[in-house]
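Hi team, as promised in this morning's meeting, here are the two structures we talked about. I've kept the exact order from the run log so nobody has to guess. The first one is mostly here for context; it's the second one we should focus on when we meet again. Sequence first, then the predicted structure tokens.
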Amino acid sequence: MAGGFGGGEAAAGRAEFYEGKITGYFILACIVGSFGGSLFGYDLGVSSGVTSMDDFLKKFFPDVYHRKQAHLHETDYCKYDNQLLTLFTSSLYFAGLVSTFGASYVTKRRGRRASIMVGATSFFLGGAINAAAMNIAMLIVGRVLLGVGIGFGNQAVPLYLSEIAPYRIRGAVNQLFQLTTCLGILVADIINYFTDRLHPWGWRLSLGLAMGPATAIFVGALFLPETPNSLVERGHLEEARRVLEKVRGTHKVDAEFEDLKEASDAARAVTGTFRNLLAVRNRPQLIIGALGIPAFQQLSGMNSILFYSPVIFQSLGFGSSAALYSSIITGSMLVVGALISMVSVDRLGRRFLFIEAGIQMISSMVVVAVILALKFGKGEELSKGVSTVLVVAICLFVVAYGWSWGPLGWLVPSELFPLEMRSAGQSVVVCVNLFWTAAVAQCFLAALCHLRWGVFVLFASLIVVMSIFVILLLPETKQVPIEEIWMLFDKHWYWKRVVRRDPKYQGNLHQQQQEMSRA
């Protein structure tokens, strides 16, 4: 349900005539669709735990295992600094990055549901290969297939949820993706806690259980409706109307359906969708949605905590089981944050959550850095009191991320793009996100080794930049229909100076004024 500057303007303001209710069919579609996030979450959680398991390290990374067992205080920050070990984590995200371009084609030509099914299939195969891995090559091949699954899922699921949701609750519905991501992380943390005790094959069970959510998503997707937006985009107008009526629970969908058709007509008039992202009139979507938010989401340092939380806690003197248990605590905080965001995002707004969380995340990172600078790396274990403060600070950081950059990093970009470039735009979002995810994953342990506590000061500084970016450049999209998002940039203190320079903007504005005068 979107229009850019092509056909959505004439429909601007029609959203007040949208009708519908929350139906069981809509709820089922949202639940099944959102579980695509569990693939991403399960991998984040399971890979972080497995890389700290002794049995896994002994088989594939013996150098890391022996360094870990040496208990040398000079290696406190550097126990896990191994490029092959980090490649095990980051290879998935590099593969996901490349796969997003294929996902864009499938999502646009075959529909959002098709991409979800492709992602589930690839994730299943990757989980099977990883569970059976006998060498590092098999591990990497499995990770690549998992990455393709995540690339397709992350490209399609946020679009699916944004398009199928009524605009008044679009924020809460889109948050389901982050909620299932968080649940996937938590479930993986719990599984790791128990499989760590199953010697010597517990790690295989952790990796192989990835096939479970992949199977559930594939089967559920067989019964998912395609979004009306996608059906209209591909010319299936009658089916699109039937699905829209069924999802909304009413036959009175004329206003919304007309917006869909007008947005689709505008989309067909546009050629070179990726090139269209560079147009001046789409500069806000490019800077905020495609480049800024997905990059900053990873540069917050959160995924470093998720990737390596057991490793971090072990490096800080926690035992193996205690480290995995602490990961369960942080995973639980992430779920709590996601639930808070679901309840508050359409009430408090996106900007408020971003800004408040920024303050909390900066404070938490500073506390972590100060504790490590004063108390850690001197050959002594942290006291119980200091360790508790450290875990609390990390939990406050995690819960703040859980109600801000975690869910909003997917929600806000999915709201910004008009239909004619939505699939391409979301592909760039996922591509940028996965690039920085992979880069952070590959570099974090080396950065921790060389910068020590300074790495957390670095993350705090980046969060300051992120918060300023939001304050200055992001308009509030709360309860604004997707087809009217362009109006926000037209009124924004800075973006209005940019978009009004585009010749197409001037022509469409003149056309809209003529239509309004005739009305």
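And here is the second protein, the one for discussion:
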Amino acid sequence: MMVTSSGSGADCMLWERILIREIRLYQLRHGHRLSIRATAKLLSSMLHPFKGTEMCVALTLCGWDNGPKLIYVCSDGARLQGDVFSVGSGSPYAYGVLDRELRWSLSKGEAISLAREAVFRATHRDAYSGNNVDLFHITAQGWSISFTSCFFLTNTPPQTQGALCDFVTMTE
């Protein structure tokens, strides 16, 4: 399972650590891993009491449970499952690229290039977006990282640059 985050860095790191601890405790108690959906439900339940506070957390859980799963959970406890998510202040720019070019027949290389382009546009146009990302390709066999994705973004074309992700935490 991978977790990406958007929001206050301190809040996101705190809740990622709490979530990792709870996932590990579940695995120790029950002898098997918690599913992505159950993890999202657990996180949503833990965040809900803080609804209306100053806490700013938006986590996207990514993984494979009988098929690909992508679930967004935010600090008010909202939980959404979908095929594509872009979260944060730069997301309208990323969605502009994704809406224009996303198709489900993309090869792995084309998908990574599209993700890199979407992130480049978001970080180039939005002053509050990050500038470094690790792109992961998740399949039933596990995940792999795109090693060409970990570069600082500049004004050069996105095909030669990296893409963004605030934090990526592995819970293996």
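Starting points for discussion:
The helical segments are 9-30, 36-47, 91-101, 108-125.
The radius of gyration is 16 Å.
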